[in-house]
C-alpha cells in the first residue's frame, strides 16, 4: 500500500436509529476534523433561537469521542435534556489511488470497505420512552441557570483539579520508597568496594 494514497472517504448513508423523529430534526454529523466550537454554536442556535425540541449528534470512527464531548457540553449548557444513545457499526468507503501506476497502464484505484464503530445520540427537551435501550434521564439541576453556570465552572475545574494532582502524589510516594532504598545502595557499593580488598 506504500504506493497508494487515500483520495476519498465516503460514509454509507443509513437512517437514524430513532423511531418517530420529526422530519425536520437537525442531525449534527461530527467529523474527526470538526471544530467543537463551530458545532456547538450551530447546535445551540437550533435549540435556543429556532426552538427545536430535539437534536441528534452522530459520529463514527475517530469522531466518536468528539461526538460525546459535544453532547455533554450541550447537556450542561441547556439542562433538562432527555438522552438516548445508540451504538452500531457503519461502513466507510475509502478510495485509494496508485501513485506509481505502470507506464501506459490505466490508473489504478482500490476501494476499501471499513466497518467502524458509530454513535448516534438523541437529545430531547420532551420526555422520551425511559424503557428503550440507551435512555438517560435529565441530570438534576443545581438551582437557577446562573448558579448552574458557576457550578459548572467550579465542578469542571475541581474535577480537573482532582484528576490531575492525584498522579504526582503517587509518584512522590514511589520516589520516597526509592529514596528509602537508596541508603541500601551505598552499602551494596561498599561491599563491592570491599571485594577487591579480599582479592588483595
UniProtKB/TrEMBL annotation:
The keyword Nucleus applies. Keywords: Nucleus. The keyword Nucleus applies. One of its GO terms (cellular component) is ribonuclease MRP complex. GO terms for molecular function: RNA binding. GO terms for biological process: tRNA 5'-leader removal. Residues 1-11 have a biased composition (Basic and acidic residues). Residues 27-90 form the DNA/RNA-binding protein Alba-like domain. InterPro entries: Alba-like_dom_sf, Alba-like_NAB, DNA/RNA-bd_Alba-like. It comes from the Eukaryota. Pfam families: Alba (PF01918). Residues 1-20, 127-200 are annotated as: Disordered. It is found in: Nucleus. Its main location: nucleus. Belongs to the histone-like Alba family. This is Ribonuclease P and MRP subunit p25. It comes from Strix occidentalis caurina (northern spotted owl).
Amino acid at each position: 500500500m506504500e504506493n497508494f494514497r487515500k483520495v476519498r472517504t465516503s460514509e454509507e448513508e443509513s437512517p437514524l436509529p430513532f423511531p418517530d423523529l420529526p422530519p425536520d430534526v437537525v442531525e449534527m454529523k461530527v467529523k474527526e476534523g470538526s471544530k467543537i466550537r463551530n458545532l456547538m454554536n450551530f447546535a445551540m442556535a437550533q435549540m435556543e433561537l429556532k426552538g427545536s425540541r430535539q437534536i441528534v449528534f452522530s459520529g463514527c470512527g475517530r469522531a466518536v469521542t468528539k461526538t460525546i464531548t459535544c453532547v455533554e457540553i450541550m447537556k450542561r449548557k441547556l439542562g433538562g435534556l432527555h438522552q438516548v444513545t445508540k451504538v452500531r457499526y457503519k461502513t466507510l468507503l475509502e478510495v485509494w489511488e496508485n501513485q506509481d501506476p505502470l507506464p501506459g497502464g490505466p490508473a489504478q484505484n482500490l476501494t476499501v470497505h471499513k466497518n467502524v464503530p458509530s454513535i448516534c445520540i438523541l437529545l430531547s427537551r420532551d420526555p422520551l420512552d425511559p424503557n428503550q435501550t440507551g435512555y438517560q434521564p435529565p441530570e438534576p439541576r443545581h438551582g437557577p441557570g446562573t448558579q448552574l453556570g458557576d457550578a459548572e465552572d467550579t465542578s469542571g475545574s475541581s474535577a480537573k483539579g482532582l484528576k490531575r494532582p492525584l498522579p504526582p502524589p503517587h509518584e512522590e510516594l514511589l520516589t520516597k520508597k526509592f529514596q528509602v532504598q537508596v541508603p541500601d545502595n551505598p552499602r551494596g557499593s561498599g561491599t563491592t568496594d570491599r571485594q577487591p580488598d579480599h582479592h588483595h
